[in-house]
Structures are given as C-alpha cells and as structure tokens.
Amino acid sequence: MFSFLKKLGFYSTFSRLYDPTTTNREMSSPEIRAQKKQPPSPITSLPEEIFVDIVARVSRSYYPTLSQVSRRFRSLVASPELYARRSFLKRTEQCIYVAISKDQTSDIHWFTLSDGHRLIHIPSLPPMPLNGSYVAVGSSIFVIGGFQDWSITASVSLIDCRSHTAKALGEMPKAVAGSVTQVIDGKIYVIGGSDGHSPMKSRSRSMMVFDLETEVWKLKPWPDWEQGKVWFSSVEIGGKIYMRTCYNSFVYDPLAVTTNNCVGDEVLHSKEWLGACVIEEVLYYYDVRGKCLRGFDPKARAWGVVNGLEGLLPRGCSWSKAASYGGGRMVLFMQADEIWCAEIKVERREGGEIWGSVEWCDVVLGGNFRIMDCVPVPVLL
C-alpha cells in the first residue's frame, strides 16, 4: 500500500503519521504548522471512493492518530462507509483495548495499542465508570457496573470497536463494581463484586446472568462457595470460569447439571495469579515478585515457568496485566516508572516445557497512569 501512496505523492504525510517516534508535541510544532500553509497534498484531491479504500486497508490501531490529522480524516474514521468497506474486505484484526485511570480514583479512559508500540487515546469514547467489568463479545466491549461520580452504578454500556462509539444498554438488576465477568455459551456471568462505597468491606453476594440472545437479565441465588469474598481475577478456559479470592481459587462450571458445579483448587491457588490471560487452554500471568512468566495447565493440574525470558523484561514492576493476542502470542503490560508493554510468543516443546520469546518490549505510556484492564477484541474489518 505504501508504494501506491508514494506514487500518489503523499507518502511522506503517511510515513510521518506511522512513525512511532512522532509525538503529539512534534505534530503541533511551529515547523509542522508551517507545512500546513504549503500547497495542499494530492490526498485532498483524491476521489472519495479511492480515499475510503486506502484508509480501509490501514490498521485500525492507527485510526485515533489519523483522526487528529484533519477534519476529513476525523469524519472518515467515524463514518459507516469506511466500516462497510472494511467489512467487504472480510478480514479480522486482533486489537487490544486498554482501560486506564489517571490515579486509580478517576474515571476510565480508553486507549488502544497501536502497531507503532504506543497506547493511543480514543477521544470519541466518553469517560466510563471506575472498577467496572469489561468483556468482549464479537467486535464490541460490554462495560458493566463500576463507580460513577463516587456512586456505585448498575449501568451497562456497549462499546462498538468498529466505530469507536458507545451507547447505554439499560441497567442490571443490582449495582456492583469489580465483579468477576466472563462469557460462556452466549451468556455473560457477573459474579460477586462490591455493592457499596468500600470495595473491601461491602461485598455483593449476587450472581447475575445476561442472555445475549434475549437481552434479558436474571438474578440467580448466591451459591454456597466463598460467600461475600472479594474476587481478584478470573479467566475462561474450556467453558469454565477460573477465579481467585484472597483465600482460595475456584473453578466454576455454569453448564454443569450437578449442584456441586464450583470447586476449590488448591494447586491453582498456590500462586498469587492476577491479570492473567489464556493461550491454548493454558493460564499465563507475570509474577512480579518472582520476576517470571508462569503458566498453569488445567489438564496436568500443574504450574510451570516459561523459559527463555530471563533478563528480557523490565525489573521492579509493581503489577502486570496480560491479554492474548492470537497466534500463540500475548501482550504483557507492566508498571515500573512508566508503563511498559511486551509482545511475547509462547510454544510448548517436546517434554511439555513452555518456552517464550520476546517479539518487542518498550515503554508505551508515561506519567501517573494505572491500567485497570486490557481487553483483546477480534474486530471484523
């Protein structure tokens, strides 16, 4: 595509936009502003159909940057015509969406990880509740509950990751924040969380289920296991929800016909797993204390350490979040003095050992920010 842009005479404009070293300050410098007074680029005279076709073939991770270039780009990035063209191309792009709070007390703002190894703010999405739960369904993200203006909310919003717009979907039967939320067999399960102003003292004993087909909520009786505990982390593996409290880890099978559909797992709980992701039915998380990437195989019921990463990741991290990225890869966000991100490919070798290789590792965001969650979304082009 870039050779085509070069022939049209505006490759330099696109190459600058795609240069990961270009900062917002540079884009607004006197030198850049002076360039705007020069004769218009040939891109402005392109027929609309060709213009849409070119931008439709650009990775969506660059759209937030493109939207800041001009009114024409900003209008196009939000237009249904662009996404209709992308849909015609019939490709799916794995995107990483990141929920960020300025200081863990302010509202959530959404960023996306660009191919240029940066976190780019999505200005078209409004601030959202703190400590909500986020789950991807298709090319959308459900934002469930949380704290809005210091009050707990039962609101549910839907982010359309194709157009970067959000809409309200009504309310849950009960207001909660920081719940365990996973999708199983066309239903969103919302388990526990906080139902008051203090997440550690006021603990919800509710389980709510949203049927994606009927769009109806059901409030279910609270099971006997771990009543009122604070849930720290969860993943879905093979149709089951693996979740952790301070006191134990559990495996919940919502489709089981027996009453004993949730059991404690002491082996799983032997590690303080947080911010985990799943690749090929194996749970992975970065142990900030042990300074290693660990994996839990539910079939073997055993933990292991991913080999080959020694000395390749930043030290002194206080927390981490991981998200699967497709093709046996994950992105791992780590908080040191700045927010780092590494793309890691994992593979199981003969003998069962898991090895990893770092595709890239770099600072993606500076300043006093905290990543609350990261959500992988397969966006249909």
CATH architecture of the largest domain: 6 Propeller
Number of helices: 8
Give me the Rg, rounded.
22 Å
Q: What's the story with the biggest beta sheet?
A: 4 strands, antiparallel
Number of domains: 3
Mean pLDDT: 83
> What gap, in angstroms, lies between the N and C termini?
17 Å
Number of strands: 26
CATH topology of the largest domain: Neuraminidase
The proportion of strand residues reads 35-45%
Helix content: 10-25%
Helix/strand structural class: mainly beta
Walk me through the structure.
The protein is mainly β and 381 residues long. It folds into three domains: 2-89, no CATH class; 94-123 and 271-376, no CATH class; 128-269, Kelch-type beta propeller (Neuraminidase, 6 Propeller). 14% of the residues lie in helices and 40% in strands. It is built from eight helices and 26 strands. The strands form seven sheets. A four-stranded antiparallel sheet has the order 3-2-1-26, with no helix packed on it. Helix 1 (2-8) packs across helix 2 (11-17) and helix 5 (48-56) packs across helix 8. The longest helix is centred in the N-terminal third of the chain and has 10 residues, at 80-89. The radius of gyration is 22 Å and the shape is globular. 32% of the residues are buried. Mean pLDDT is 83; it is low at 1-30. InterPro entries: F-box-like_dom_sf, F-box/kelch-repeat_ARATH, F-box_dom, Kelch-typ_b-propeller, Kelch_1, Kelch_FKB95. Residues 40-86 form the F-box domain. This is F-box domain-containing protein. Residues 22-41 are annotated as: Disordered.
